[in-house]
Amino acid sequence: MYQNGNCPQDRFDVVVVGGGAAGLLAALAVADSGATVVLLEKNSEVGGKTVWSAGLVTAGGTVVQAERRVEDSVDAHRREILAHAERTGVLGIPGVSEKLGLLIDNVADAVDRLAACGVRFGGPHPEEMHSVARGHQFVPGARAAIAALAQKTAEAGVRIRRDTPVDELITGPTGSILGVRAGGREIRANAVILSAGDFSAAGPGRPAPQFAEHAYKSWATGDGQHLAAEAGGDLVGVDSMVFAALITVDEPLFFAHPHVLAAGAIVVDGTGRRIANETVTFGHGYAERTPHDLYLVVGGDQLAGVATSADDGPVGRDGWLRTGKSHLGNFGGVGYAYVDDLLDAGHAVRGESLDHLAATLGMDAATLRREAAEIAKAVGAEDRLGRSWSTDPFANGPFLAVGPMRGAVALGAGGIRCDERMRALDSSGEPIDGLYVAGDCADSAGAGFITGGHGYGLGWAFASGLIAGRDAAASTGASAGRPAEAANAG
Ligand SMILES: Cc1cc2nc3c(=O)[nH]c(=O)nc-3n(C[C@H](O)[C@H](O)[C@H](O)COP(=O)(O)OP(=O)(O)OC[C@H]3O[C@@H](n4cnc5c(N)ncnc54)[C@H](O)[C@@H]3O)c2cc1C
């Protein structure tokens, strides 16, 4: 399609493809080393899925912890999580120990770099699985964190080109990566970092998502995986690992945790009708069955077991952990949501009766009442959707409806095989010269999710971005400390 000489050219030391968490920090790390770098982003704004996340980053041994008198270290974090992974049997899964170690060893450094960029953190919040508080929560949210990071990245000399999807990698005769082609333009570089996110909206010819319903973001089409595969990169887990969730349509993001459904909450659509066995389908299985928005409906007995901010200690959102009560799910800016958080954000309405709830939401009250009556009748048995009930969760009010929400495939967790320097590997395990990967686009061996902990998706993206950026810059011979402006001149 392109012949040398008939398309416009640029030259940089490093090209970064995709400007989410991984790409922005990778580009900043390259600029910190004094190498020239351009970041190409296909959307009109940088931030990717990162700006739509709940913004919780788990890290141990950070400056933020030290400032807030939380004693911790990278070693303590690593020891604790590897021991946890061993106990739960996931450490034996190929790649988990290496990738988990890589993540934990670098995420504190990444969080410190973000803090130095002016990214603000709440907490750190105590977390399950951790003996000390490691949940670094973006405040007021992920969008603000990315804005601060993008600003510092540009100030450091990174050229950021928006609306510039990368279509192709330029490959030399021996398979080395020589640059990229984007929108009719050829950009030559010594190294390319693919940080183009996940594949949950993959289209034809790309790695396929596991479920048929709507992806959370339509642009998450696995471009990085696709580009790497064309250049001989090995893809791992791209057809099997997905994360589907019930997510609010509006910001700030809230996504419900499975324990909320297991404890008796139901999901109805805008007409008041239940659609599926919520404990089986969880986030997937809705979009193809109803065109309407969804609402999570919680009964009074369950609501009584949800913590309130009065239960929290001085450190962070930990009332649910301290008291053994529950939270409702992840919530942007706060960490874990209680009832008042959702009411205050306009994500929820409360009603003394189901009729009251239905009237507030413009739902058909008779349909909602019929659903509740069917559940009451099914106690000790299964309802029409195959869900078993041991008690009637709607026997007592008040009732809460959270929404509008939708069920979406939020992430595809597989990616491009890589080594500890974030170099892309081919099917024989050899690095592809000049090609690096980072974030959701890179194979993390599912290390973050597999432990069952939170905050490791962003943790992996930032840690791997930092490693890829530093190594890619070093591979170009850039020496740390070279002024970024001089490096970018010309
Ligand atoms: C609802 C939800 C909540 C989450 N909450 C949390 C949380 O609280 N904590 C946590 O740790 N993780 C969370 N995660 C996971 C976390 O958001 C991701 O793991 C992380 O944001 C991935 O960052 P990334 O840089 O790899 O990808 P992204 O942020 O998606 O960035 C990829 C970028 O690449 C661009 N791009 C794609 N193709 C091209 C192309 N061809 N050319 C140029 N650019 C391209 C995209 O437009 C995008 O800007 C959540 C995820 C979801 C969906």
From TrEMBL:
Pfam families: FAD_binding_2 (PF00890). Its cofactor is FAD. Signal peptide: none annotated. Keywords: FAD, Flavoprotein, Oxidoreductase. SUPFAM superfamilies: FAD/NAD(P)-binding domain, Succinate dehydrogenase/fumarate reductase flavoprotein, catalytic domain. The keyword Oxidoreductase applies. Residues 13-447 form the FAD-dependent oxidoreductase 2 FAD-binding domain. PANTHER family: 3-OXOSTEROID 1-DEHYDROGENASE, FUMARATE REDUCTASE. This is FAD-dependent oxidoreductase 2 FAD-binding domain-containing protein.
